[in-house]
Amino acid sequence: MAANNNSGVIATGAGPTIDARSLHLPAQMVRPPNEVVASPGLNNLPAPRNGVFVGRDEDLARLDAAMDNGSGRAVVRVVHGLGGVGKSTLALEYAHRFRHRYNPIWWIAADTAEGIVAELAELAVRLDPIAAIGA
């Protein structure tokens, strides 16, 4: 699946390998987002669970309440604050602690628009559209 001219992995150096693939699906074969089923446990969390994470119970509870909209639909929430206060650590702990509730869990660093597009493209590939066609 191509997104923003990114259609695969390109390796450089001595003896490079190029894996460039594009998948073009007819519109009638593309499922609405609420019908796409992710493989169990699909995630790209950037780090394992922090074994020494302590405290922040109130912050985790507030985040948990914000994530539960009761609709069964995807929820997007933003944790914001000054640099270095532990926003990413809090979000990562939440993702690990409650990973049994969500599938997929996809971590997107929003530093650049290009990075967001690349992460969403990777998610689209990992959702395996070819398998979804046969389902």
From TrEMBL:
Domain of life: Bacteria
Chain ranges of the Orc1-like AAA ATPase domain: 53-115
Gene3D superfamilies documented for this protein: P-loop containing nucleotide triphosphate hydrolases
Matching InterPro entries: AAA_16, P-loop_NTPase
GO molecular function: ATP binding
Family annotation (Pfam families): AAA_16
Keyword ATP-binding: yes
Keywords: ATP-binding, Nucleotide-binding
Coiled-coil regions listed: none
PANTHER family listed in its UniProt record: HTH-TYPE TRANSCRIPTIONAL REGULATOR RV0890C-RELATED (PTHR47691:SF3), REGULATOR-RELATED (PTHR47691)
Protein name as catalogued: ATP-binding protein
